[in-house]
Specification:
Blueprint lengths: L5 E3 L16 H12 L3 E3 L10 H8 L4 H4 L10 E5 L30 H24 L16 H45 L4 H25 L6 H14 L12 H8 L4 H18 L9 H25 L4 H36 L15 H36 L11 H18 L13
Antiparallel strand pairs: 1-3, 2-3
Helix pairs in contact: 4-11, 4-12, 5-6, 5-10, 5-11, 5-12, 5-13, 6-7, 6-9, 6-10, 6-13, 9-10, 11-12
Amino acid sequence: MASGQEADIEAPAGTHLFSPGLSEKEPLLAQREGLLHRGLTYQSNSEGSVDDDEEKEEKGKFANVLGQMPGMPTALRRPLITRNHVQDAMTYHTQDLASWNSLYHVSFTVWNRRSLWMITLKLLGLSTVVALLVLLLVHDPASLKVSKFTEISSFLRVFVGLLLGFFMSASVNRWWSCAEAFQGLCNSMRSLQIVLNSCGVPEEHANHVLRYGVVSAWILHMQLHIEAMKPSKHNAAVKAMWEKIASGEDRDPTFGKVLPEELEALKAVSDPPGQLWMWVGSYLGHLAQEGIIPPLASPTYGRFLGISLEGFNALRDVRASISVQAPFIYVQMLSSLVHINNIVNALSFGMTWGASLGTFLAHWGVPVATHPEAAEATHKEATTDMQTLLVSFFFSCFGPFVYQALLEVSIAIAQPFSNKDAVVPTERILHLLERDLHDGMAISKKISWTQPCFKK
């Protein structure tokens, strides 16, 4: 599916997609916000929006996905959204990767990594030097068996491919564990909001508990990125982090604020995100003591503590996934084998290139400066060597390029918070969490029954 493909969604006027307490405009606004968070672009379909004939013709080329689904309401048939390009490592459309459109993507791919192309240029330069040396030093290149050169690096390919496969699998699992644990941390706060609302906890108390959880996630987000920096930059980054936390910059004013006395207490501990969950548990105990939620001995209170422990354990899982890396002896051997294999392939291709070029020149009677008398080569020898050169290019140039790209990808995803191309989008996840918490507070008031309340 192309990146410009459109999906259709719209609610009819006067129809409420959510609770009956919402106004006519609120369902579409809430729907639009949800679409934006899914990597889609909202387009106004008012009378003032005019599409020219070319745009309409282009839109008509694409199938209407929702319209093709069986049982799809006719209300969901007018185009309001289009796909965006890749926004981050987690926000993309897999349908685009099934077509040749995937070849055009550059952002968040290995092809925009400078280190990959620098290694490729170095290997190509090495092959060129070796080819020139063979061309200048070998008097009769037609006598060389250039096919033998391609066998030099074949014995390393098995080891490199096997070790790269293991490392790639381990890196993907590590990345996935980090992303899943961070999502689990955020989901624990959503679960906590549900049980707080079910007990009729007043909004100021519920927000107090949720605020500690959200702030812990924000501090964890900042610390993970700081730990990925060079040690020489840690002190300055930590200082900037506390200043940003104190100012409330880029955070929700309700769930992201930190009081001055709380800030000073957090600065004095080694694990501020974890200690904030101590405050969550303590405040839940305070609510139980005040009779706002069921007492300490009740199963309901045990559920409150269970959700709090889920959040704390998810936080520890994120840290464990980051701190526990593959053994250095294994990664260093893998990296060395990849580079040695690439260098050997560059040498092999250089010799094949030089011998084939020399045979081709000898066939046409072109002398080399170091050999005034041109060697002789038959048409068959020249043709065979050129075929061997073409095959050698794919084995000795394209193959090592793919190995180097796989190594770059494995290293990138092995560090989920230090590489911009594979970073877990924790900031977007946290903004989505804050929005969901606000939506939960708002929707809990738009009910047609009496608001539950444990404290009578």
